Amino acid sequence: MQEIICSGSPYEVGYKHGTDAREKVHGSLAFYTDYFWRKSQMNWATASLTAEKFVPLLQRDWPDYLEEIKGIADGSDLPFSTVLAMNIRTEIAMGLMAQDGCTAFAWKTAEVSLLAQNWDWEEAQQRNLIHLSIKRDDGRPSISMMTEAGIIGKVGLNTAGVGICLNAIRARGVDYGRLPVHLAMRAVLESTSRVEAIVKLEKSGVAAAVHFLIGDQSGSTSLEASHKDLVKLEMQSGRICHSNHFIADHTDGVHDTVFSQDSLERIDRATELLNQAASKSRMPTVELLERMLEDEQGLPGAINRAASGKSTTATLFGVVMDLDKKDVDGKEYIDFIAMFSAVNSGHCNQEIMDAVMKQMQKLTLSNLATHTASWGPLAQRLCMRFGYDKVISGTSGSEATDTAVKIARKWGIATKGIRKEEMLVFGVGDSFHGLTSGVWNLQNGTAKRTGYGLDDTLQTNINPTTGKVLRYGNIEDIETCLKTHHGRTAAVIIECLHGGLRMDVEVQYSRAVYDLCRKYGILFIADEVRQGAGKTGKFHCFEHLGDDVHPDMVCMGKSIAGGFYPCSYVLGTNAVMSLVGTAEMASTFGFTPIGNAATNVTLDIIDRPGYMQRGEYFGKWFQRLADRWIEEYEFVIEGVGCGMDMCLYIDEDHSTQRVTARKVAALCVQKGLLVVQQKNRVRMSPPLILSDEEMEKAMGILKDALDQVLLYETVPGEFWTGPL
């Protein structure tokens, strides 16, 4: 298939198309001149007059398309009305197209979003097909499509990861006030998301009957169009397929003709193939879908169609589009930070998305006048699953930790009898519990915090006697502090596993803190917001401390709802939670129907056999590599794999090899691996749905960055240019 690469203004794009594909554009004209006459005794002059009925609409709303068509006409030495008619061919035929047998399907999982189609048409038109690429540098997506020479919109995808397939539908009727089919496809390819594309078509309408399968990295939507309406069909279990007849009910007066019995058979066969692969837990790949497109069951009217007898229709091309995550230039990235675990279950997890979208169509928010019916069962599920008596729902992780500390203070006053002006709540060094005014003071002090007036001597991670930070991992620090101050200490809040020290050291330390809290009658609050939800091989980090460890309160957040909705929870025993009275804790968006739906499905996913064990598996994988890199690179001084929390320490003060963690991280990003830098650490937090292949690729990129970092004087992104 001839490739034509265009750029510039709409006219320049069209002119390059017309010039480079001149012979094929003339071939398309000859094909459709013959086709229209054979099917309806319509000559080309009549076809051109019909097409011109769309000019007022296009001049008003889509002038760039007219300019591009004019460029094709000039470049190929044809009249403008002739090239316009080729782009309006579906509307000219008005349902007369016959023997078209395209089959399209899509498959979305947490790891990948794929869109596939066989395009079936008369074999005589195969010689006139082109691969058209339109390069953009103005912020709009670049486009790559398989099309018939002279036509500006067809099957393809763009650099925003939006793709489109089509199936012909034989249903009479045309509306000259709506966007023609092939130009509607171009509008989709000009979009930056599936949602944007669908909104465009809902606004413009589509002039004649057709089916579009529109996808992006979040999944695909089946859009059945007629000259009167648009009907959407969504994926079921992450899969959807279509052929050449309407599946949904349409407006009165819209009737299609199933012009080929094999349309029914092909959609059944495509569904069967997709379901068979899914039932075998097969990972969808481009290669797997290509094999499905080669299926010949039911020849000649198979998915891979063949011309036979009177039918001259055959599969002219097949295409599988990978709609994976891309940047504005179309570059793919492996997300190895996942917003520090907020999307542990993967971007756009289909199961969670389906549950959230289903709930969004029923009820959005109902918490004050009456509780939503889904909250009670979820609250009971959380308490029974983790062995607690009561639960409070919030939104952010910071809200959860702030709420837990707030409850601990009341417990300190009401139960332990501590005077409020003397009460201590301790955090430990190098922790993060959020940046609200109630918990920021539990973390390492900064000039920024001081600037807000939030330094505190009562809620702190500093020993009041020594004035020194309670270093995480140093048992003596916390032991000395509590020995002196336990009588006025209400609680210690801690991330049981930080991921900054070797895991056995962190387990030993956090267990010692727990034992000290039990010894002195101090509440132990486990902050599981970042490191919980199965990330380290167990649901909660505190479970690594021993079967007898049961924190007084547990804070959950981030990925507990798969990243689809901000949800957080504080679980606790009656001894502390019963102290909370009416109107003492409230969150507008706590326990919403949408959040409840997302949390329930996420819990289902995390508790599946083998899911949490992935964290331990990948953590050990990284640790083995990191141990080797310590020996291989002088500037690598330590590496820690704590489940899916991984970090590499860089010696930024090395006497001869000047390397910073930010430089390594920036080089990784340039190579397609998203990581972050914190102090002298390269931090990683990939999702639990990570595949072995993705892990191998990511570690290969990281090693390449370590190999090459000394070769670069600077790396884009190495230096922060924003506010300090």
Do you know the CATH architecture of the largest domain?
A: 4-Layer Sandwich
Strands, total number: 25
Across the major sheet, the strand order is: 1-4-5-6-7-8-9-10
Structural class estimated from helices and strands: alpha+beta
Low-confidence stretches: none
What's the domain count? Answer: 3
**Termini gap:** 53 Å
Whole-number average pLDDT?
Answer: 91
**CATH homologous superfamily descriptor of the largest domain:** Penicillin V Acylase, Chain A
Task: Quickly count the helices.
Answer: 23
**Helix content bin:** 25-40%
**CATH topology term of the largest domain:** Penicillin V Acylase, Chain A
Helix and strand layout, with pairings?
Blueprint: E1 2-7, H1 10-20, H2 22-40, H3 44-52, H4 55-61, H5 63-76, H6 80-87, H7 89-93, E2 103-108, E3 113-122, E4 129-135, E5 143-148, E6 155-158, E7 163-168, H8 181-189, H9 194-204, E8 210-216, E9 219-225, E10 230-234, E11 239-242, H10 261-279, H11 286-293, E12 313-322, E13 334-335, H12 338-341, H13 350-360, H14 375-386, E14 390-394, H15 397-414, E15 424-426, H16 447-451, E16 459-460, H17 475-485, E17 489-494, H18 503-520, E18 523-527, E19 553-556, E20 568-572, H19 574-577, H20 593-606, H21 613-632, E21 636-642, E22 645-650, H22 661-670, E23 673-674, E24 676-678, E25 681-684, H23 692-708
Helix pairs in contact: 1-5, 3-6, 4-5, 5-6, 8-9, 13-20, 17-18, 22-23
Family: Belongs to the class-III pyridoxal-phosphate-dependent aminotransferase family.
Protein name: Ornithine aminotransferase car2
GO molecular function, one term: ornithine aminotransferase activity
